[in-house]
Amino acid sequence: MFPLKVLLIQPSHRDCIQTLFSIYNTEEGIGFKPPIGLLYIATAIKEMTVHDVKILDCQLEDIHHENILDFVKESYDVIGINAWTDFWYQTLEIARKLKAHYPTTHMVIGGPHVNIFPREVLGFDFIDSIVMGDGEIPMVNLLSRITDKEVRDKEIPGVYFCGHKNTDYVPYVHHDLDSLPIPDRTLLPIERYSSVLSSNKAVTSMITSRGCPFKCVYCKLDFQKPVFRSAENVSREFEIIRDLGIREVEVYDDTFNWNQQRTKDICREIINKNLKLKWAIRDRVSKANEDILVDLKKAGCYRIHYGIESGSNEVLKICKKIITTDQSRFAVKLAKKHGFIILAYFMYGLPGETLEEAYKTLDFSLELDPDYSEYSIAIPYPGTEMYNNALAEGIIPTDYWSEFVMNPKPSFTIPFVIENLISKEELIELRDISIKKFYFRPRYILREIAKVRSWKEFSQKFNMSIGLLNILRGRLVR
Question: Which domains does the chain have, with CATH numbers?
């Protein structure tokens, strides 16, 4: 086996799909998080093979398809590019340009977009293979196949090649997460990753579990059942992060507290090691538990993100969220009691929602009064039940996602699902009213000013305010 030169690329947000989804704008100082998926894959290649691997994070330098050759100035044996539907235009054009310039390079595409459109992605003649599902072991095996003639024709679970004739495309699921190497964050400039919500200079991200057991109609993250890392393995990664000089971690599990005993074990490990890190989690209001919150607080967790979505129990039921407004009230009240910062997510334009119910969501967000609220317009993404139902019912007349995948355009604007209940204009107006009513309340402004402890915090909050004002001017955000 001879060593290969491997480059993994995270595309830029430039020219990404315009969704009206987020209140934040990456150009307004929100900061960037390291591409944790590519870090996992790169570390597996580094520690499990003889191959040389590098990561190019195009977000940091605003690298895009038009200037990619200014940064990829040498040939690589294998180039892997991460593909999200939002960034598909950049992914495709970067792959096209690099393959044209370095025709002998093996071009492989992975990521969530590929799980939904494997056949379409393989339809481009400059893409040699795709990786579906968890990418670490499939990528390691793909590199072995390229270098070892004896396994050249062997099938690789999760990997499919150009010319693949089988109609079955199965994502690879890695069930033993502890067996994977802990991501080597030194493969990226760790000091350059930060967050608008943090007072620390360097912030990193972490995944302690994969998969989601729920089937919300607007989401497509249900291709695998939850798989968890052990508390010992998680605390070891926290320890490594601490030793790198990073003082804050954002845990991106869909539901960190799904297994409450594991949560308690993680907290105990962190406390016993006296790691003294700040960290944030994403959780479900239905999992709120006072004993767990006490442990989390002692272990350094200080911020919780809750997907509340709606103030209408009927809409929540239609969306299969499997939570209630009373659970949201209880969870937020309990988290406030224990001093957590709370970020709550709300959506307008959900299936079955009337304008009256949408305004009920606005009132509910003001009642809950979290530290931060994100108001977004529900987007029917490909592969979701929301999109498939809208197609079947004729609400969406054409399969525009399939058309976009084969011929993506820069800054593509998504046609919204309109169920003759709320118009697009009403949704946008409601989002803007929500931002005004929540963020520009005198009480809220005074509360946030009182929290400021440094010039950095003031600058972050100021940049966030500018981003909000840009939305109110009617500008689409990424």
Answer: 5-161 (3.40.50.280), 194-379+416-440 (3.20.20.70)
